[in-house]
């Protein structure tokens, strides 16, 4: 293969990588954090906490900031009887999740590329999140302003500022990462 052909193949790849980086950079500037995956231990703990607490009736589960899909995809797979909704601002991770959703035929999964703070969360019976402290504060303000009652909220690593969780599970990892479990959260 000559140099001209090699350049022909690498230029589209370079442009794609550049677009991905720009997408992530813009969403990072907007939200204060890049899309961060939950660790395997955190994901397993959250799934177990949900399995232990969810009633048999259909629930609406919302992932507030679904990132690369490390939690929203397993939620939809593990709980096919429930509706699962994911919110993500970053274009490329959202597109990657959308692709996986269709490849795995996850009909119970809906993915939105928008800010959950500007969305109606009134139908959510379960919320899961891995958000930075300023986003947790903003979530708390939204819950109060909208007078939302959330039967179950699980937060990986960061707590809501003024609500007390019923349970805190510390993962067996280097940081003893907390998973906060809020039940019957009323504002």
From TrEMBL:
Signal peptide start and end residues: none
SUPFAM superfamilies: S-adenosyl-L-methionine-dependent methyltransferases
Transmembrane intervals: 6-26
GO biological process per UniProt: methylation
Keyword Zinc-finger among record annotations: no
Keyword Membrane: yes
UniProt xrefs under Gene3D superfamilies: Vaccinia Virus protein VP39
Molecular function as annotated in GO: protein-lysine N-methyltransferase activity
Entry keyword set: Membrane, Methyltransferase, S-adenosyl-L-methionine, Transferase, Transmembrane, Transmembrane helix
Protein name: Methyltransferase small domain-containing protein
Natural source organism: Aliidiomarina minuta
């Amino acid at each position: 293969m000559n140099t001209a052909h090699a350049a022909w193949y690498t230029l589209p790849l370079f442009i794609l990588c550049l677009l991905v980086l720009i997408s992530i950079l813009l969403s990072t500037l907007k939200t204060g954090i890049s899309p961060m995956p939950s660790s395997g231990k955190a994901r397993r703990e959250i799934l177990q906490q949900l399995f232990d607490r969810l009633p048999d009736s259909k629930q609406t589960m919302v992932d507030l900031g679904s990132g690369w899909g490390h939690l929203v995809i397993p939620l939809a797979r593990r709980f096919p009887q429930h509706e699962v909704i994911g919110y993500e601002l970053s274009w490329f991770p959202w597109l990657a999740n959308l692709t996986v959703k269709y490849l795995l035929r996850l009909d119970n999964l809906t993915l939105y590329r928008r800010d959950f703070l500007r969305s109606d969360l009134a139908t959510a019976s379960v919320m899961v999140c891995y958000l930075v402290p300023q986003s947790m504060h903003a979530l708390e303000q939204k819950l109060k302003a909208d007078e939302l009652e959330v039967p179950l909220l699980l937060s990986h690593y960061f707590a809501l500022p003024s609500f007390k969780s019923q349970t805190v599970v510390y993962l067996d990892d280097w940081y003893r990462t907390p998973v906060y479990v809020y039940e019957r959260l009323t504002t």
